[in-house]
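User: New here, any thoughts?
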Amino acid sequence: MCGIGWASGIEVASRVVSLVWIAHCLRDQLSREAWREIQRSLGAHRRMLVRHPSLASSANNHRVAELGALVLLGEVGPDAFIQVLERQMHPDGSGVEAAPAYLGVCLEWALLVRMWSGSRPDLEDWIRRAGGFLAATVDGSVTLAMGDDDGDALFADRLGHAALARSALGVGDALWDAMLGCSGIGELPRRAAHFADGGLVVHRGSDYTVWHLMGPLGLPPLAAHGHADAHSVSLVVDGWTVLTDLGTGQYLGRPDLRTYMRSAGAHNGLVVDGVDPSPQRTPFQWAPAGEEWDERHVQLEGGSSEGVYLGWNGVRHHRRVRVSSHELVIEDSVTGGRHLLVFPLHFAAGLSLQRHSDGGWRLRLPTGRVVRVNVDDTFETQRLGPGDDRCRRAPGYGQVSTGPTLWSEGALESAHRRVTRINWSPDSAALD
């Protein structure tokens, strides 16, 4: 049990599933010697998982995987698995790591344990809550970029949040779909939602989704998979991403990319004095967060959400998001001493942002819909070009592309206000 294949408990756990499934599918075709080899290998995997459990900051989704594998091997019962599983979720269903992708990994294991050991009320309740949260993070084929997402999954053909949520909510069976090569069935509920513990607000309409982040940096003390995304706003129209956070990039090998993708500048919120609200100590560690939220109010029926973020030293950032049938309005008010402020607006890769005669910008979606962007701000707003590192996007783990970014920068003397309007009404002006 040495070498790279035994370096990580979560990889060992995933290999257990492969071996068990192979043995099950080929049970009538395997020779006696092949059965003995599989049994010997599973025994080595069991010993590894028992002797070297993930501890400290890895005792989260990694430990869920390890215990899930030990349930399959008959080493532990579902109680031990569910005890650790519960620690991965806030009461409202959002993940404690502030990274929905890792809640999705835990949900895969929960579905597998349910299939293996049978249904029980506490496991069903966890699955239902996780499925409800993941359903809120998707709009068609678009998934909210929130926190880290390294593309890791129990199954090689990654299920994705939508398929997992369908299985968890009983409108599809994502687990069997993956194993048998079928596609997911059923439709997810499309509704506005507020997850107060995780800080996610979801505004929905027939042709749009707006996500507003007002939650913690991540799971203390490291917040390893969290991003500096306070007050970040993402927008999907007609099933196409308009405003987006920039993604994950990759964990190791490109420290400049890792640092930027986690930073406040890579999210549609606020940057103060060119630094993050909490310093990045390592690729998986933030300094203890001094963040604090105040006066958070959400009215889903009225399409509004607002809050005051106090994580910046001496700076108070109040943001109000209002959504009507075809317009998103972001109102910012910042107070404090003398500081340099930046308001980034990152648009999806592949979109072309053009200046308009009214002083705003226009872009056209692949559906033909024209989106108008107008910023009422005394700060100078510039459109960054493809050669600027701030325009990098990570559509998938290890992938890098570029997209348009609006960058508003100026000096805060004592107070500053700005209003951003994004309109996608059917009668929007043409791109002239």
Q: What stands out?
A: The chain has a mean pLDDT of 91. The two ends are 65 Å apart (CA to CA). The longest strand covers residues 327-335. The CA atoms of residues 331 and 419 lie 5 Å apart.
